Every structure is written in C-alpha cells, then in structure tokens.
Amino acid sequence: MSYEHLIYDVQDHVVTLTLNRPEKLNALNAGLRHDLREALAEAQQDDDVRVVLLTGAGRGFCSGADLTPNPGAASQQAPKSQQNDLMDDLGWVGRQALAIYNMDKPSIAVMNGVAAGAGMSLSLGCDMRIGSEKSRFKTVFIERNLSPDSGMSFFLPRIVGYSRAADLIYTSRTVEAEEAYRIGLLDRLVGDDALMESAQEVAAQMAGWPPLALRTSKRVLQHNNEVELDDALRFELSNLATPRKAVNDQKESQLSFIEKRKPSFTGT
Is the terminal CB of the chain with fewer CB neighbours within 10 Å at N or C? Predict the structure, then answer.
C-alpha cells in the first residue's frame, strides 16, 4: 500500500516507516495520522515484517500535532459527525497511542531530531529509542494550556520515573541528547552520521531471532509490566508454548546450536 504522507519500506524483515512532512517537521495532520495508523496495521498483519523502525524525514522526528490554521476551513461546511465519532472516548490521540503500543512486534523510534508533544508521545510508545546529538525532546502540552495526551502520562513515568516525568511535563523544558540518554529517554546514543545504520543493525539483530519467540517476548514484557509477580510468572509460563508452535524454528534452534552456525528462522 502507498501512503501520501508516509514512506513504507520493507527490507530483510524490517519495515521503516518514515513520517514524510519535512516542511512541517513531520507535524501530525489528519492525513499523516491516518497514514500512520494504517501503516502500523499493515506492518502488524504482514508476517514478513518482524521489526518496525519509525523515523521522520528531514531534520525532525515529529513536532507534534499540526496546529497550522487551514485558510479554507472557515468557508467549508463542517462534516456531519458519525455516530462512531461521537461515541469515541479516545480520539485520534488515543487511537495513535494504541496503534503503536498494541503492536506485538518490536518497534524502534529513530530520533533524527526534535520530538515534541504528541510526537514525543509517539516515540515513547515504541519499545526503544535510538538517537544522536541532534535528538531532543520537549513535552510542550502545558505551553498550549493542555495536560498531556497521546499516552504521555502513561509512557513517560514508566520510562524515566514519576518525578522526572513530573519535571518534564510541568516545566516543558527541552531535553538535549546527552541528558535524554542519561535519564532513559534514549536507549542508545550514537553519532548522527551513523544513526540510521545503527538502528538498522539493532533491528537486524532482532529480526534474526525466531519471529514467534520475538513477538511473544514483547507480549509477556508488556503484560508483566502491569501485574503482580505471581500473575507475571503464570503469564510467562502460559506463553512458553507459543514459540514452540513454530516446529521448524524449534528444530533450527537446536540444529544451529549443535552445528555451531548462524540460525535461519522462518516463523514456521
């Protein structure tokens, strides 16, 4: 599928989703928001995709919601609200957070520049963030007379801790790359020239493992981040059987170990 505001590229079991509104620092307008949700759904359904890289075109990751006024909007008749829209208590911000978080394939945000507001939230919904000296984060919401949305109040404390999340949300100060790495907003900090190559190397390493084991690992990790230990242990045990359903991969894991060679997993 082709997208108007997003580039979708699959190579060697890794899909790279590039937000493609560089003239607006990839701000999220209605078109990009729709394309992103559709692209994430496509990647989720494609068995050839094992890992997702998410980045932005140009010099920014994503500057948040697009607040640019539409000159023609005033003269256009507002579309009639559909019942589903009226009943939706999540809105596009909630739907976006669920789209990225609910994927059971690892996702890596490649932080090629600023991530602000809903753009920062988007990066926080990924499993990992890899950045360079050009990466920076800004919560923004309080500057717009808003409280956090798009999942920030859920993701940020889990990543950096409650008090640091409070600091960043209440002050809306800019977090530069070095501090971002130190407090956990960035999981890896590399040179800007090597940013995408480094992210691709990490993705390739993940994509080389048995696909069902990879997806089940994410499922268990996310679920057990929210429960007590006894529930976590039961969930781990109940999910151990899932990767073993891929009989060929189970055999390949054993044979490659015995034969001391690199395994080749197919997900079957």
Answer: N
Residue 32 pLDDT more than 70?
A: yes
**Nearest CA-CA partner of 131 in 206, 205, 54:** 54
Q: Are 45 and 58 within 8 A, CB to CB?
A: no
CATH number, residue 171: 3.90.226.10
- Assess if residue 267 is contained within a domain: no
Q: Which alpha helices (H) appear in 138-228, and where do they start and end?
A: 152-160, 162-171, 177-183, 195-207, 211-224
Question: What per-residue confidence (pLDDT) applies to 81?
Answer: 56
Higher pLDDT, 36 or 90: 36
Q: 129: which strand partners?
A: 109
- How far apart, in Å, are the Cα atoms of 234 and each of 113, 212, 243? 41, 19, 16
For the chain, the domain total comes to 2
Global pTM value:
0.90
Domain region containing 85: 6-68+79-207
Indicate if 55 and 140 belong to the same structural domain: yes
How far is C-alpha 156 from the chain's CA centre? 13
- 22 backbone φψ class: left, alpha, beta (φ>0; ψ -120 to 50): alpha
Mean of per-residue pLDDT scores for the chain: 93
